[in-house]
Amino acid sequence: MGELIPLFPLGTPLFPGMVLPLHVFEPRYRRLVLDLLAIPEESERRFFGVVAIRQGWEVERIAPAEALYDIGCVARLQMVRPQSDGGFRVVTVGGERFRLRDVLVGEDPPYLQGEVEWLADEEAAEEAAGDAEGLVVPGTRSAAAGPGDPATASPPCDEHLDEVVAAVARDSLALLAAGVQELFTDYVDEVTDLGAGSDGADAERAALLDAVADDPTALSWLVASTALLTTEDRQALLAESATRRRLAAETRLLRRELTLVRELGAVPAPLQRFATPMTVN
């Protein structure tokens, strides 16, 4: 059995470290906020899981487990402001990622609950695999090298090999992150010129980029959260556990989006914008 946590389905995924403000007005989610407020403020349990909706716009119309993506992110409660109508204004911050194994629907509590497994161990393993993937350590044989090639020289002493691999990984990851930051800056400029962004939002993005310049993982989550991508693209980035692979995917996505903006003057629009009430037909 996995751990049971409250769920809050949304139209787009939440990412680690990203701020998520919410206006809570539905009775069941008012109950969720009240349940969280009943937990001691110093507790680590003041959170709920955010999962993106896979299909449709109302989870209850189809089986919840089929309607939701299977990778989500914890939203940790930071601030709660009760409203005069009984609702709440809340501010949360993205925390740990999880895999949704099952969805429970009940009357008490009235909100959805998810049986989840945490992805911390998977993330650590994928980070190590991602760092080693495609790297050629100086003085060792490359996959493409043949007999007599300089790359077939004797490898470094064992005691130094880990240090060399780590240094190469750090340098290449920094270059990859710098490339993503440059692409994202160009992308934001193009979107602003198109009129799809706002001056205030662009200034905020610039400040955030400066803040995460030396943190490739935080940069990758910032780009995933703020680029005007489809839910499917964002969800794929959330599901990627290795920072290097996530940045590589963002490089491809940003190049694609820059081409669309420059050639077609277009950015993705959320499907919810085109939603209409369901009919008997």
Assign the structural class, choosing from mainly alpha, mainly beta, alpha/beta, alpha+beta, or little secondary structure: alpha+beta
Give the fraction of residues assigned to helices.
40-55%
Instruction: Give the strand line-up of the largest sheet.
Output: 1-3-4-5-6
Unreliable stretches (pLDDT < 50, length at least 5) are: 270-281
**CATH-assigned fold name of the largest domain:** Archaeosine Trna-guanine Transglycosylase, Chain: A, domain 4
The CATH homologous superfamily of the largest domain corresponds to LON domain-like
The dominant shape is globular
- SSE topology string: EEHEHEEEHHHHHH
Instruction: Please indicate the percent range of residues in DSSP E strands (runs of 2 or more).
Output: 15-25%
Counting structural domains, the number is 2
Largest sheet: 5 strands, mixed, barrel
Average pLDDT number = 80
Instruction: Give the beta-strand count.
Output: 6
Please write the CATH class name of the largest domain.
Mainly Beta
N-to-C span? 40 Å
Figure out the total of helices. 8
Radius of gyration: 22 Å
Secondary-structure arrangement, i.e. CATH architecture of the largest domain: Roll
